[in-house]
Amino acid sequence: MRVSELSSQSEVPIPTIKFYLREGLLPAGTMTGATQAIYDHSHLERLRVIRVLRDVGQLSVTAIRDVLAAIDDPDLALPEVLELAHHALSPPPPRATTEHDEARRLVETFVAGLEWRVDPASPALDALAGALVALQQTVGPCGPDVFTPYAQAAEQIARFELSTVDPRQSAESAVAQIVVGTVIFERALIALRHLGEEHFSRERFGQPSDR
Amino acid sequence: MRVSELSSQSEVPIPTIKFYLREGLLPAGTMTGATQAIYDHSHLERLRVIRVLRDVGQLSVTAIRDVLAAIDDPDLALPEVLELAHHALSPPPPRATTEHDEARRLVETFVAGLEWRVDPASPALDALAGALVALQQTVGPCGPDVFTPYAQAAEQIARFELSTVDPRQSAESAVAQIVVGTVIFERALIALRHLGEEHFSRERFGQPSDR
Fold first, then answer.
1. How far is B39 from B52, CA to CA, in rounded Å?
2. Cβ contact B150–A192 (<8 Å)
3. pTM value?
4. Which residues have CB under 8 Å from A198's CB, separation 6+?
5. Which of B168, B190, B210 is most worth mutating to test chain A (most A CB atoms within 10 A of its CB)?
6. Dihedral sign for Cα atoms in the order A108, A111, A116, A121
7. Nearest CB to B79; choose among A82, A158, A205
8. How far apart are the first and last CA of chain A?
9. CB contact under 8 A, B157 and A150
10. ipTM reported for the complex, 2 dp
11. I need a surface site. Which of A28, B19, B195, B197 has the fewest CB within 10 A?
12. pLDDT tens, A92-147?
């Protein structure tokens, strides 16, 4: 297909497609003349991934390029590409303090106790340690065991999510799925937790309109 | 106790305590002279709540004042105070569009199907509708049923969280607990979901080091 059809099918404006071509995010099409190129289904799929990473993941062009490079690297297996996408989507780690280092050790032991095998460099370990430090500072002394019910819920969710990833699909579409999952379902999970809290607080402490 | 002891026990600097007194966030102490006042345990408790709302909830002074006013209102029951705290902690609602209004209706039906009784004005309903719109725009046509596994996990978490709130405790300390829960355990839940995804992706698609 020509660039005009690629644009209408992907709903990405032509100037944006040309920007992605210049930035190397989108591979060049097959030249059919001095100024004409044709594009195929792989370009459509790549545009969809770029859109997810940009609009949903809110990644910078540099971070998008890193994730795409990992997708294109034949030496990386799917879990490694997914981990790289997770890293790109995570907030920067909190600054190292004595409290943080100690919490980080406790959290590593906690995760090992769940029998989860994770990358020791995963930013999620730092995020979890940060939550433990915040809890200790506001509530008082406590250990990572307070996270157990959340770990059980997270295990249930992660197991479900991975069961929906088709191992035969391309790394590209698996990553798109995980990024969508990471960002959009995170928002949904947070909203549902609030709604559930509202419901169970009414159930436990009485409905305002019941009085 | 004098203000100096209130400061050392609460770990809040004296100038900050005086600011909270001026702004009406902290009730005045009992005057024991022209310039001296004494404070009691309720002031300590209130300072802890302010600290949680400010540091953990990142609320503005105005939003903190609203939550404290709800805590002090004898006509409000605990669920109403908790809902008000939730509202103060939620991001502003997304702008109303045709897609959003339609998603909002679907989401309301979905939540009613869970048999959850929630405030129709809850910002979490808008947040969930926003997630549905984002999903439809990136993945394609879908309904709120895709949220079912997340709703199940949220129900499990919310049920556990409310079971830990002692109905005999003050609205003040219940709100402090919910704010801590909303903000800190949200961070923990997100981190644990990432770690769980890493583990199950390795389990399903092979450990990088196994190859």
1. 20
2. yes
3. 0.78
4. B79, B82, B83, B86, B116, B117, B118, B119, B122, B124
5. B190
6. negative
7. A205
8. 66
9. yes
10. 0.79
11. A28
12. 776 778 889 999 999 999 999 999 998 888 889 998 998 898 888 777 789 999 99
Longest dimension (CA), chain A: 78
* Residue pair A100/A130 in contact by the 8 Å Cβ criterion: yes
Any residues with CB less than 8 A from the CB of A80 and at least 6 apart, and which? A70, B208
Closest CA to A157 of B110, B151, B107: B151
At residue A36, the 3 state secondary structure works out as coil
Q: What is the fold, at CATH topology level, of the domain defined by A3-76?
A: Multidrug-efflux Transporter Regulator; Chain: A; Domain 2 (1.10.1660)
Q: Which residues of A touch B125 (CB under 8 A)?
A: 191, 195
pLDDT tens column, A54-81: 877 778 898 889 888 888 887 877 778 7
- Print burial letters for B149-184: b (CB count within 10 Å at least 16), e (below 16): bbbbbbbbbbbebbeebeeeeebbebbbbbbbbbbb
Phi, psi for B38 (deg, rounded to 5): -115, 150
Distances (CA, A) of B115 to A157, A195, B151, B156, B187: 21, 11, 12, 14, 27
Contact B82 A201 (CB under 8 A): yes
Label residue B206 left, alpha or beta by phi (over 0 means left) and psi (-120 to 50 means alpha): left
SS3 B30: strand
Residue A155 has which token pair? 């295990």
| Angstroms from A82 CA to nearest CA on chain B | 8
Question: What is the Cα–Cα distance from A59 to A53, expressed in whole angstroms?
Answer: 6
- DSSP letters of B59-124? --HHHHHHHHHHHH-TT--HHHHHHHHHHHHSPPPPPP-HHHHHHHHHHHHHHHHTT----TT-HH
- Domain coordinates in residue numbering, chain B: 89-210
